[in-house]
Amino acid sequence: MPRFFSADSYWNQPIGPNPEIDPRSDFYLSELAKGPFGNFHLNLHQYTVPVYEAGPDTPRRTIHQRDLSDARRQGGGCRWGNGSWSSRKKWFSHGPGFGRDVPIPSAARPDPASDAHMAIVDWSTRTAWDMWACRIHPDGEYESYTGMVYSLDGTGVWNTSDFNPTDGDSIHFYGPCRAAGVPIIAGLIMYDEVMAGRIEHKLSYATWHNAWQKFVFPATWTDGFRDDGLPEGATMQLDPTLDLGKFKLSPVAKIICRAMQEYGMVNVDVARGNVIYGEGLWDQPGKSWHRLVDEEELKQIPMECFRVLRLENVVNRGDSRTSPTDQ
């Protein structure tokens, strides 16, 4: 399948030989290793992103603005800043058109977990739509708290100034559907590319130990809450010299590991553990992760086999702090 974003996108660039390692890489890895669920595992069946393909004949729908006063009852993936959701009743978009005339296949379903992500890609128009806290109304209409529309030919990297967020607010107030302010399709492990035998882009991951109000490129914001945590946007790499044959890995797990060795992965969100995101496969006939890869396979690989690449130009802004129990 074609890659998301332009050839020169950060998401599509291999790391290359001899990258500079952050001086505190070992510290960050030791902290991540203390996580409640251990080493990295795959999110394939919940808390991930289903991606549906649309085309010229796909029915167009309006994504209605979900009542933002419900947001405080959302729980789970919600993050709260100093502002009021109810004061932001508007269409959220980056570029024209989000919310109206969105091509949605009849089988499209958001992730059933609390983040309720869903993405639509239309290769004929080279356009993508992101949704966060999306749901299907009893009358069959779709609604979402926030959303974005953007070009698949762009870099997949936005600037904080694109949204002008207020310090202490969630970036969700301003449109992005991932807490680090990146596209929700960026870094996803896609079923079709795995079946083709190769992933040629960076992956996306989340941790339980993200830093409070610290982020780096390509993130534009953060919902981290830990003192001395890992900034969102941080790129990690699996040691490219690591012999994958030492572990009992399925062919799919090896494809994923090789992508982490060649391209690395980007910290995009807070999670209850250390997770890597794969495409959610709901109502997509003929596609299933079942028997291809186990979500726990990557836990065999010790955290010390990874490394954090040098963190540059750290920005000190982001969500207001909440306690770990709010994550």
Task: Spell out the key features of this protein.
single chain, mainly beta, six-stranded mixed β-sheet, 18 strands, 21% strand, globular
Describe the structure in your own words.
The chain is mainly β and 327 residues long. The protein has one domain. Helix content is 8%, strand content 21%. It contains 3 helices and 18 strands. The strands form 5 sheets. It has a 6-stranded mixed beta sheet with strand order 1-16-11-15-14-18. The chain has a 5-stranded mixed beta sheet with strand order 10-7-6-2-17, with no helix packed on it. Strands 4-9-8 form a 3-stranded mixed beta sheet, with no helix packed on it. A hairpin with a 4-residue loop joins β6 and β7 (127-132). The longest helix is centred in the C-terminal third of the chain and has 12 residues, at 251-262. Residues 72-95 have low confidence and may be disordered.
Q: Name the helix and strand elements from N-terminus to C-terminus, one letter apiece.
A: HEEEEEEEEEEHEEEEHEEEE
User: Helices and strands: which structural class?
Assistant: mainly beta
* Number of H/I helices: 3
Shape: globular
- How many strands? 18
Quaternary: single chain
Adjacency order of strands in the biggest sheet: 1-16-11-15-14-18
